[in-house]
Amino acid sequence: MKSPIIAWTAAALAIGLQAPAHADTTLRMFVSSQGSPGIHRKIADLYEQRNPGIKIEIELGGATSELQAQYLNTVLSSRDPSLDVLILDIIRPAQFSAAGWISPLGDAAAAAPMLEDYIKAYADANTVDGKLVAMPAHADALLLYYRKDLLDKYGLPVPKTWTELAETARKILAGEGDPNLQGMSFQGKAIEGAVCTFLLPYWSAGHDLTKNGEFSFDKDGAVAAFNVWKSLVDEGIAKKNISEVGTDDTRREFQAGKAVFASLWGYGWSNFQGEDAAVRGKVGVATLPAVDGGKVVSCLGGWEWAVSAYSRHQEEAKKLVTFLSGAEATKIKAIEASYLPPRTALYTDPDVQNAMPWIESARAVVESAIPRPVTPRYNEVSEIIRTLFNAAIGGSMSPEDAAAQMDARLRRILR
Ligand code: GLC
Question: Please, are residues 81 and 307 in contact by the beta-carbon 8 Å criterion?
Fold first, then answer.
């Protein structure tokens, strides 16, 4: 059997990712400002040291996935060559590839040995029509963060269902009597994260948006999913203004000790361990609860590196992408910024385990997490789900009306 390194190098060569760098090339790398963007500079510095003649400039995108997508849509639809390497949310490679905005990195079959090092969902999301169109940057899934100290204080176990979570939160809130403490923070704002918020209880109850390529929306299931979240608001467990709470609001609230539970992505962890975090040393991580009688699910997140089709430095950009998605860069991101690794071997790496003691259980969560629909029309799917979910939980539309509209509008796209 070939060693993984030899197999990887052979595959990388086969798809042309190992082309030599030319002197004095500046590569502009677009990254998300969510999480710990500083880590990208550190990795870029390392790359510059190893590759004389290459300079990397970093351009910080907006804090939310859809703000970044809007910006990239503008840049790429005007064929602007100023960006070379782009970080893309897992939901985007299909659309960007269909639009011709990102360069194929090679033939997926030739890259197969290399892709075996990654969690399968990422290899799948980055393969479009037999071509590899992006490489994994980091894995992600929605996780349940909880206040270990408060659960211990009241002798309560980590809740396994939404009903148990509500009961647990109620007991702790009553016991603490702190007006600044909320039971649960989650994303209700009409942003990409709200798509996942909606889908969690919907999927947990066994419903899908499509089945075997056919549209299979369940209206009653959608009403029930809205009500899981809405009841947390109505019962005073989540904030009244939940329809304005975005991803990083949840991170800030939980970090400041203002929430017992939070539904949030992997990047929360390193923030919660920071010197200035009120919750440092008091946080546990678990899978999100299921609906009563339902299955345990999470929403698959993650980010991918792609090369802009308009970059004037195609070979250099591809080589940089190989480095960014490689073992060294993804390990640094895991250890220093708790970005979940896309490479399976890192889940048993002692340094990564030391930085994230819950990492082995996170692998099971990521591997069983459900992807949002993979379609070039994902933007429309997202817009429908997030705005109607936001309206239903914010009270500007009844759950029944929101579900009926979701059904009618999604049907036109996913049919
Ligand atoms: C996280 C996930 C990404 C998701 C986004 C929503 O960054 O990794 O996939 O779309 O959050 O806010």
Answer: no
**Is the per-residue pLDDT at 99 higher than 90?**
yes
**Ligand 1: residue whose CA is nearest its atom 11:** 193
Nearest to 134 by CA among 82, 173, 95, 166: 95
The CA 264 to ligand 1 mean position distance, Å, reads 9
Q: Tally Cβ neighbours within 10 Å of residue 59.
A: 15
Question: Is residue 103 in contact with ligand 1, taking CB distance under 6 Å?
Answer: no
Average pLDDT for the chain: 93
Please, what are the domains in the chain? 4-139+302-368 (3.40.190.10), 143-297+377-414 (3.40.190.10)
Mean pLDDT in residue range 381-402: 97
Residue with tokens 């940057």: 137
Please tell me the distance from the alpha carbon of residue 48 to that of residue 2, in angstroms, as a whole number. Answer: 30
Determine if ligand 1 sits within 6 Å of the CB of residue 265.
yes
Q: Is 247 in the pocket of ligand 1 (CB under 6 A)?
A: yes
* Ligand 1 and 84: CB distance under 6 A: no
Whether the model clears a pTM of 0.70, i.e. scores above it, the answer is: yes
Q: What is the pLDDT of residues 272-289, one digit of tens each?
A: 999 999 999 999 999 999
Asked whether the predicted pLDDT for residue 9 surpasses 70, the reply is no
| Ligand 1 pocket residue status of 253, Cβ below 6 Å | no
**Ligand 1 atom nearest residue 140's Cα:** 8
